[in-house]
């Protein structure tokens, strides 16, 4: 095949959904967090919608692969043309139950017994139905009846409906109002932005070439591809695959603007006419994102609107004693929730909730939202290198500590929450008065590498680790699941690159940075204002 001539181990831009190529752009991260939270909190009914080609199927496959088989039982239904009886038979078959009967009552009884057994064993059952916009009203009513299987306190099955935007119109029909009212979590997957599109193309190239980049796309080519695709992964893949073929025929190692234009022209011939409306939708999404960006910038900078508070230069200097006394006055649990939710808001994740009668913990609240909390040491510059929202640990009078969310950094100041002595923005010197180091960073262990306990799971985790190290050019050994001296050396080499302690141990900070450098993990940055000045 032509892509083999570049040294790719597999086609980098194949259209077939492949979880191995998963790239979590900002919209995909947000959708992933919503799905994981909904399933872990047993929300019951969940809806994921998105335009054709946004990556919905790849995402749900990855999600199901990540769920621990010791804790979850999962099934994925692809066939949208089933009858009510066919659906029930297919569901039972996917869970390994009797599916030969044509008696609906018998099939329901079998499924209910299975769900009760799994519930008693402490396991969560998850059913995903893809292409749900093609289901008939009768089949959707059968889905609702399946959801009726519950105890007095628990939903016995979590049902995820995945489909195109037409799914919303279908669910809004009068005869499906009971089903529609039961959907507690909804998320519409948006296309990628330009930065994510560039990172996505590079990620697929590096993954398919074992961490190398035998082919590059010029900035002009990437602009053309983004403008045409509107940030839809499937269209990006289609154009890039044709551009790859052009590069092969011209014996070039870079896709130029002209080559991208030719690839787009060729792909347009095979697309249905209604595709032409997509860029306008992408434009609308882009306009909305720009509005949000401007609004966010005004909040951070405090200088766009005349009604904003005074700038740093005109606000009174921070009193260390008053600042620490104010932090200490806030109850510990109240402070924990306020600071944690400030960081979660930066991730665009739902706010964490305390359980009545039980003290909340930082790690527990992070787990609520499918995130990992990792303590890190170092000063403000070290956190700036991590470039992710953090929770600063501040010692207060009386021997305790309070948390302060670090949300942004620029050359002279930092953005914090909750407010300290009435200020949400401090100079670096003011922060140094109350904080001497020590923080916790929230991140997402998408592949679950850090939480694998059993031997077989650990081996699979090491394989994933070796793949990631290959992608960043720190490992060229076999992907065999053995944490060998060579693998440890690869970890140490990566740590040296990232200015971390080069001990060869896979700690949370190392894994967080490895996810980011290998592609697919992009937390909300701390240095937003500085970065955006150079963006296109």
Automatic annotation (TrEMBL):
InterPro entries in UniProt: AAA+_ATPase, AAA_22, ExeA_AAA_ATPase_DNA-bind, P-loop_NTPase, Peptidase_C39, Peptidoglycan-bd-like, PGBD-like_sf, PGBDSf
SMART domains: AAA (SM00382)
Gene Ontology CC entries for this record: membrane
One example GO MF annotation: peptidase activity
Pfam families in the record: AAA_22, PG_binding_1
Peptidase C39 domain: residues covered: 313-442
GO biological processes: proteolysis
PANTHER family named among the record's database cross-references: GENERAL SECRETION PATHWAY PROTEIN A-RELATED, PHOSPHORIBULOKINASE _ URIDINE KINASE FAMILY
Name the record gives this protein: Peptidoglycan-binding domain 1 protein
Species of provenance: Citrifermentans bremense
């Amino acid at each position: 095949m032509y892509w083999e001539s570049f040294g790719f181990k597999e086609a980098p831009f194949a259209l077939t959904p492949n979880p191995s190529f998963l790239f979590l752009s900002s919209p995909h991260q947000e959708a992933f967090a919503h799905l994981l939270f909904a399933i872990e909190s047993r929300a019951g009914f969940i809806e994921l919608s998105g335009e054709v080609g946004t990556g919905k199927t790849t995402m749900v496959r990855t999600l199901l692969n990540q769920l621990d088989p010791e804790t979850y039982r999962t099934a994925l239904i692809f066939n949208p043309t089933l009858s009510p009886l066919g659906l029930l038979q297919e569901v039972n078959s996917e869970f390994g139950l009797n599916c030969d009967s044509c008696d609906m009552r018998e099939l329901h009884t079998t499924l209910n017994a299975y769900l009760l057994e799994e519930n008693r064993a402490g396991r969560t059952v998850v059913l995903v139905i893809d292409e749900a916009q093609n289901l008939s009203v009768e089949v959707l009513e059968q889905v609702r009846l399946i959801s009726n299987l519950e105890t007095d306190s628990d939903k016995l099955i979590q049902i995820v409906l995945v489909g195109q935007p037409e799914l919303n119109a279908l669910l809004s029909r009068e005869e499906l109002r009971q089903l529609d009212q039961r959907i507690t979590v909804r998320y519409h997957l948006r296309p990628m932005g330009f930065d994510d599109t560039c990172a996505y193309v590079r990620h697929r190239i590096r993954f398919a070439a074992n961490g190398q980049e035998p082919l590059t796309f010029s900035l002009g080519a990437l602009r053309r591809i983004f403008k045409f695709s509107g940030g839809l992964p499937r269209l990006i893949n289609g154009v890039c695959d044709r551009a790859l073929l052009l590069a092969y025929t011209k014996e070039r190692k870079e896709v130029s603007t002209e080559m991208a234009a030719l690839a787009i022209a060729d792909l347009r011939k095979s697309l249905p006419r209604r595709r032409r409306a997509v860029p306008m939708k992408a434009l609308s999404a882009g306009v909305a994102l720009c509005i949000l960006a401007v609004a966010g910038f005004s909040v951070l900078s405090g200088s766009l609107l005349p009604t904003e508070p005074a700038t740093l230069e005109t606000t009174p200097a921070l009193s260390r004693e008053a600042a620490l006394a104010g932090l200490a006055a806030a109850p510990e649990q109240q402070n924990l929730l306020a600071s944690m939710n400030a960081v979660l808001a930066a991730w665009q994740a739902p706010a964490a909730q305390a359980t009545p009668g039980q003290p909340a913990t930082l790690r527990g609240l992070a787990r609520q939202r499918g995130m990992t909390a990792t303590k890190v040491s170092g000063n403000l510059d070290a956190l700036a290198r991590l470039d992710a929202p953090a929770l600063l640990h501040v010692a207060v009078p009386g021997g305790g500590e309070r948390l302060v969310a670090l949300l942004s950094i620029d050359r002279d100041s930092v953005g914090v929450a909750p407010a300290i002595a009435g200020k949400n923005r401090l100079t670096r010197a003011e922060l140094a008065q109350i904080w001497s180091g020590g923080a916790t960073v929230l991140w997402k262990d998408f592949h679950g590498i850090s939480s694998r306990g059993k031997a077989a799971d650990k081996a699979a985790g090491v394989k994933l680790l070796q793949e990631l190290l290959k992608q960043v050019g720190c490992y060229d050994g076999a992907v065999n699941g053995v944490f060998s001296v060579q693998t440890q050396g690869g970890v140490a080499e990566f740590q040296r690159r990232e200015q971390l302690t080069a001990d060869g141990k896979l700690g949370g900070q190392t894994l967080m940075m490895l996810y980011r450098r290998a592609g697919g993990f992009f937390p909300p940055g701390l240095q937003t204002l500085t970065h955006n000045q150079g963006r296109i």
